[in-house]
């Protein structure tokens, strides 16, 4: 049976919070790696208005087995009322890298 991997994305309004989310997920082995990207410009609907904000994106590299726990941790620690938590399946990747992801997310 093939292993299943995902890349999970969230955004936040500060580099500090993004770094805290990343470190927490890696420390708890819910992600093998977390990358911060930013600042990025976001435009979105919120409470009936179009908003624009500078945000930081966090990309977590993990397994589908860890997704629910990672999503729960992001939700608990995130400052947003409705944080973005999107899992994108990894369709293909180097066997060595994916093996490393699996090893790092297994206690």
From TrEMBL:
Gene3D superfamilies (UniProt xref): 3.30.70.120
UniProt xrefs under InterPro entries: Ion_tolerance_CutA, N-reg_PII-like_a/b, N-reg_PII/ATP_PRibTrfase_C
Q: Name one Pfam family in it.
A: CutA1
GO biological process terms, alphabetically, are: response to metal ion
Cite the GO molecular-function annotations of the record. Answer: copper ion binding
Family to which the UniProt record says this protein belongs: Belongs to the CutA family.
- In its UniProt entry, what is this protein called? Divalent cation tolerance protein
Q: What is the lineage of its organism?
A: Bacteria, Bacillati, Actinomycetota, Actinomycetes, Streptosporangiales
């Amino acid at each position: 049976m093939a292993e299943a991997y995902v890349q999970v994305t969230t955004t936040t309004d500060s580099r500090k919070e993004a770094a805290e989310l990343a470190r927490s997920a890696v420390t708890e082995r819910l992600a093998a790696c977390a990358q911060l990207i930013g600042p990025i410009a976001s435009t979105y609907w919120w409470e009936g208005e179009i908003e624009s904000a500078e945000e930081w994106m966090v990309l977590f590299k993990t397994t589908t087995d860890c997704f629910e726990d990672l999503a729960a941790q992001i939700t608990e620690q995130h400052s947003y009322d409705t944080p973005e938590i999107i899992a994108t399946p990894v369709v293909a990747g180097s066997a060595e890298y994916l093996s490393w992801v699996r090893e790092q997310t297994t206690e």
